[in-house]
Every structure is written in structure tokens, then in C-alpha cells.
Amino acid sequence: MKEPARILVIGGGYVGMYAALRLQRKLKRELRHGGVQVIVVDPEPYMTYQPFLPEAAAGSISPRHVVVPLRRVLPDCTVVIGEATAIHHGKRTATVRTLATEEEGTGTVDIHYDELVLAPGSVSRALPVPGLAEFGIGFKTVEEAIGLRNHVLEQLDIASSTRDPDVRDAALTFVFVGGGYAGVEALGELEDMARYAVRYYHNIAPEDLKWILVEATDRILPEVGEEMGKYAVRELRGRNVDVRLETRLDSCADRVAALSDGSRFPTRTLVWTAGVKPHPILAATDLPLNERGRLKCTAALQVEGVEHAWSAGDAASVPDLTADRPDAVCAPNAQHAVRQAKVLAANVAAAIAGQPLTDYAHKYAGSVASLGLHRGVAHVYGRKLKGYPAWFMHRVYHLSRVPTFNRKARVLSEWILSGLFKREIVSLGSLENPRAEFKLAADTGRHPGAS
Q: Residue 210 belongs to a domain with what CATH number?
């Protein structure tokens, strides 16, 4: 019996999930009859819709509604929860560490493939800043969004209860490093949430909260254009947010944020959103990389000079055929990633069938960004919007893009309910250590005289 053509998809994010979803549709007959097998490998059993992370952190959306279960949307694919540690494309083999291999103590397993779709995405780019590894908080996963929400609310509890003015000031100081989408939207949503929450604390006023945004360049939100970026700065400063442009974080050792302009802020909250870098798996392959560590790809989303290897999104350097400059490449953002994934899947299916490939070409439509409830900026198809219209466009756009009707309906219903009822301001920090109370009880039970 002939072996099925095996397509291995590394990564279950924007590119990985959408590519597998499109392959599942295009190769439906082959998948059902065993002529083709699609294997998706990702450390998590879900895809995270990252534009909704700020709203999840603020409590506007339930965290479980910003993730899409891979097994539910990819029933005809084989989903492997694990992490690729090396790829030997010359041998058509990927080395994968799974939960099962860790439990068994066997280390890794080799997965053989005929076609490789490498879409691991990116990871946070952490610079060697003193104290960052110890005290910094990331904002790239749903777990980090939940943890940050709990952390901010816990700081309000600390500030409300302490008699030490230094502890209170540090608890009420929130420093965000990075003026891109993640940093600005997270700060905007959490500032909005905290401003609402302090009405339930008798000894904390909104003016007591100190929010600081640190950006190394001379502007924030460059994707929405210079004019809208300046408006975003004015909007944030009007809400008592200290926006520091052309400023870097030099240190956060001992819970003190030391900035390049000489300022020092004792703080218990430092959120790091200053960029991303290619996933480490790319360096553990025998595939060609550019100077930034991304895969060199053709406009058809094939890895340059290599057969049977494909990539898109954050991991790939793809020529931008719509740009004026011949050396221009597509920006590594979600707008391109989703569209590239569909072309990539169509080309993989075409390659298996021996049909011609299609080049990827998409002119950037623009960007939208939220600055908190009812506030936003947008620059779409040459039109500039701000305030409520931009915020509304942000919600409509992302609601249309979040995968599956199930998630769209759940997110929409939560937005409607949040408009009718008051915000939830409960911290569930114990979720991060679910065994803590039982462990304490068990340890107490071991001591003599325990009741």
C-alpha cells in the first residue's frame, strides 16, 4: 500500500492553523481516503488570537474565548502537542519533544515528512537589562494576560492595605516598555480597568495611579502613521499617562525602573513588550536564513532554493510584490500572516498535484489600535479615524477576523453583556498556583500536634 503524502506543519498560530485549515478543506478527499496526512505540531493545544489579549487582560473578554482549540477546528488533521527541537530537511525529518516523550523519559521522537510548513511564529525579544529576567512581565500569551490582570488588581489591594508609603507608591506605579501594538493596547486597557476598579477602594484615587510608557524611538504605533501616533500620545497623556519617547530602560534591578533620561521609578510592575525575534527553531534547521534570522522565501512562499519547504508570517522574509522598492519585504504582522497562510496552503496542495504555484501579493490595508474603552486610532485605506469611530472599527475588524463562528458569537455576547453590566474587578491570582492551599494543608498535617 502506498504511503500517504505527509505534510508537517510546525506551529499552530496564525500561519500554522490557517494553513492547516485551508489544507483540510482543499485536500478533504485525500485526507479522508488516506492519500494525504497533515500533522500539526505546537506546544499548546490552541491558537491564540493575540489582538484580543489586552481586552482579556482588562476583563472585557473571557480568556478562554481568545483561544481556538486546534483539535476542534482541525478534525481531519493529526494534532501533536509538543515542540520541535531540530529539523533536518535534507533527511525530511523533524525532531519533536512531546508530553508523552517527557513522561516516558525517551527525550524526543522523529517525525518524517514529505512537505514542511515551518510557521513557529516569534518569541519575545528580551535585552540584557539588569533585573528584567527577575521582575519583567511579558505580554504575548493568554497566560501572561491573565497573570498581568491578576497582578495589577493585587497591587491595588497592596496599596490599599499598606501603611508604608514607599510600598504604596511602588504598587501604584506601572511601567510599560515598548510603544507598539502590544504595549500601547495593554496599557490603555489596563489603565481603563484600574481607573474603574479604584472606585471600590476608599483610600485610592485615580490620580494616585502612575502609568509610564517607555519607547526608544520618537513615536508610538508607527503602523497607524505619524499623525495618528501623535494623537495617541496626546490621548494617553490626557489620561495622566507619562509617555517617554526616545527613552530606554537601562535597569529594573531591585524593582526600580531606571530610564536612560535619568529617571528612577520604584515599581512592582514592569511589562516588557519591546519587540519580538524569530523562534529559536529556525536556527536549528538546515534551511537558509537572512541576516535577521528569518527564512528566505520566494513570493510563492517556498523557502528559497529548497524544495518541499514552505514558510510565512513572522518566521519568513517574503518579498512584497506591491511595494515600490524591489527589495521590500512583507511586514511580519497578522494581516499578512493570515493571507499568506491561505496562499501557502493552496500552493502546497498545488505542488502535491503537480499544478503551478501562485505568488503572494497583498497591499497593506492599514492598521487599527485600541487605547481603552471607546478610544482608539485607525489608518485604513488612507482614511484616518480617532476616538470612538476608530475603537468601533477596531472591534468590528477583529471580530470579523477571529476564527470560527463559535468564537465570534461568544466574543460578541461578552461585549454586549459588558455594556449592560459593571466590570468584574476580581483578582484570581490563586489560579496560577492551584495546589498552594492543599500543599499548605498537607504540610501542616505532617507536623506533630496538627489538628
A: 3.50.50.100
